[in-house]
Amino acid sequence: MRKKILALFLLGMVNFIHSQDHYPRDYFINPLEIPLVLSGTFGELRSNHFHAGLDIKTQQQEGFKVIASAEGYVSRINVSLWGYGNALYITHPNGYTTVYAHLKEFSPEIDAYVRKQQYAKESFTIRLYPQLNDLKLKQGDMIALSGNSGSSGGPHLHFEIRDAKSNILNPMLFGIKIPDHKNPTIQSAFTYTQNDSAQVNQSNKTVQLVINRQPDGDLLANKIFAHGTIGFGINAFDRLDGSLNRNGLYELEMEVNGNKVFEFTANRFSFDESRLINSYIDYERLDLLNQRVQKCFIEHEINNLSLYKKVVGNGYVQIKDSMEYTVSIIARDFEGNNTKLIIPVKGRKDSILIQKSIKKTPYFFRAKEVNQIRDSLVTVYFPKNTFYEDLYFDFSYNNGVAKLHNSSVPVHGSFKLSFDVSSYSEDELKQMHIAKKNQHGKLNYVSTTRKDNSLYTLSKNLGEYTLVSDNEPPNVSAIGFKDGDWLTKFNTIKVKIHDKGSGIKSYRGTIDGQWVRMAFNPKNNVLTYDFSDKILEGTLHNLQVVVTDNVNNKTTFTSTFNKKN
User: Fold this and answer.
1) C-alpha pair distances (Å), 252 with each of 116, 184, 255, 333, 559
2) What is the pLDDT of residues 428-474, one digit of tens each?
3) Domain of residue 409, CATH code
């Protein structure tokens, strides 16, 4: 009998272990030696992606010491003008990798390793993969100074933890503690009908609910009258202690009459699925009103996000005539603080007074099939699963502008847009590129490739595209010095580069004919060379900076300066 009980106990323990994710909670330490305050949480809703880590505030300044969260070795180094900017990846003996991004500069040992490779390749931007014994680290070793490099919107440290399969994990699961005593805020709530026969308050369109705050802080919506298959969504955020930033939710749940039918939890996801955020949110509302509404239902078949923990019936609610329902939506943060919205629903089949309208066009696209448009001068090719759902596609080509539907429809995969340029001369084509018009009417360069008699681009954004010529070379100017100056007391030499047409593609700086490492900050368009990088021989020196734009217009800037070592 005792053996049987023991066997059942062990079986229960095995099931318990395999039913939960277990992470070492005392393995990683905080990557900064200052109190941790967040400007961004894991899984937070961003443009076309879920946020992949924690954004840690650095008191609106750069230069705080960044330390290794655990022992390991530097397995990857990125120096990029965009994205993560200066970034380090540390692989640890337990199989996890930590990532530190938007750094100002690396530690002296790491910088010496990077500098050697940059000079060997004569490139400031670089991606390196050191070997196991190249850059070993102990827990707490300084690896960098915090900064604002890449596509950062301000000084902070972006910190990630990834598993051996490169899945991104919520660092808070590992015991990274962030003080948080505030309940999430639910700003607004909406209902959605699944088909033409469903209705809410006699409307087949999206309906915003009237919600009222209760004395206990939770919310109660006015009763709605509905029939058919409907879904719910909320616009919500969370604030942590010491910060006014509107951060993301950790968990979103929905219950119907006490039964859980939907659960979204920001624990883990892969980069491959991150763009599915455009199916998870009400993308049209984001485009038109800049509101991120999280849907408590799965609208599209392509949406297989691993962030969904439990979904019954795709999260939709079947409302029957004369039946009463209580829908509860709970927004929760990592510390368990929560806000609940109660929505009373009465089943009532009425006549539908407000019906969704669909603009029919000559182009009906099926999402699971290849779709293609051929005009006299424009061809657009959409591979399978470019779109999340079937749609009537609005296309026109007038006065040289190709209108591809509108920006309110999300695109999951890249499509190919081609312009026939056989009528242009070779000289004209040298400075020609494709541009996309933004919401203010400004034309922005998009990556353009020439093939035979066509120019094409690959894009994931609908909107208006046209051909543009850029005949103006970039501008290059000295900052704080002029030709022939003595720069003995200068630690750096700086030049400003700018291109108002297609944008800067590349630059190359030399002193006395030798390539030098010039760091480019695209936020202020400044190139900087640090004189400590290399000992210059002699006193008189020649600086040359060659800047090329995206259609190969080129500017060469030259200047002499004097400097004693």
Assistant:
1) 48, 11, 10, 9, 60
2) 999 999 999 998 889 999 999 999 999 999 999 999 999 999 999 99
3) 2.60.220.30
Give the per-residue pLDDT at 565. 79
To which H or E segment does residue 109 belong? Answer: helix 108-121
Domain that holds residue 306: 185-347
Cα 514 versus chain centre, distance? 38
CB atoms within 10 A of CB 360: 9
Taking Cα atoms as reference points, which of 75, 73, 77 lies closest to residue 117? 77
Task: Report the first-to-last Cα separation within the chain, whole angstroms.
Answer: 87
Of all residues in the chain, the percent with pLDDT exceeding 70 is 96
pLDDT digits (tens, 9 = 90+) for 383-399: 999 999 999 999 999 99
Where is the domain boundary, 443, 469, 495?
469
Is 322 buried (19+), middle (13-18) or exposed (0-12) by CB count in 10 A?
A: exposed
For residue 150, the SS3 value is coil
Residue 535 has a pLDDT of 87
Report how many domains make up the chain. Answer: 4
Q: The dihedral of CA 275, 280, 286, 291: what is its sign?
A: negative
- C-alpha torsion sign, points 464, 466, 472, 474: positive
Binned at pLDDT 50, 70 and 90, residue 21 comes out as low
Strand 136-137 to strand 54-57: parallel, antiparallel, or no bridges (unpaired)?
unpaired
Identify whether residues 189 and 301 lie together within a single domain: yes
Q: What is the predicted pLDDT for the residue at 439? A: 85
What pLDDT digit, counting tens, does each position of 186-224 carry?
999 999 999 999 999 999 999 999 999 999 989 999 999
Same domain, 55 and 84: yes
Q: Where are the beta strands (DSSP E) in 81-167?
A: 86-91, 97-106, 126-128, 136-137, 142-146, 156-162
* CA separation for the pair 557, 474 (Å, rounded): 10
Contacts of residue 155, Cβ cutoff 8 Å, sequence gap at least 6? 58, 60, 61, 62, 146, 147, 148
Calculate Rg over the CA atoms of the chain. 28
- Give yes or no: residues 232 and 342 share one domain: yes
**pLDDT category, 15, cuts 50, 70, 90?**
very low
The token pair at 360 is 């029919």
Q: Which CATH number belongs to the domain containing residue 64 in this structure? A: 2.70.70.10
Residue 534: how many other CB atoms lie within 10 Å = 15
Tell me what pLDDT residue 11 has.
36
3-state secondary structure 9-52: HHHHHHHHHHCCCCCCCCCCCCCECCCCCEEECCCCEECCEECC
What distance lies between CA 376 and its chain's CA centroid? 36
The runs of H, that is alpha helices, within 174-320 are 277-280, 283-289
The answer to whether the predicted template modeling score (pTM) of the entire model surpasses 0.90 is yes
What are the two backbone dihedrals, phi and then psi, of residue 79, each rounded to the nearest 5 degrees?
Answer: -120, 110
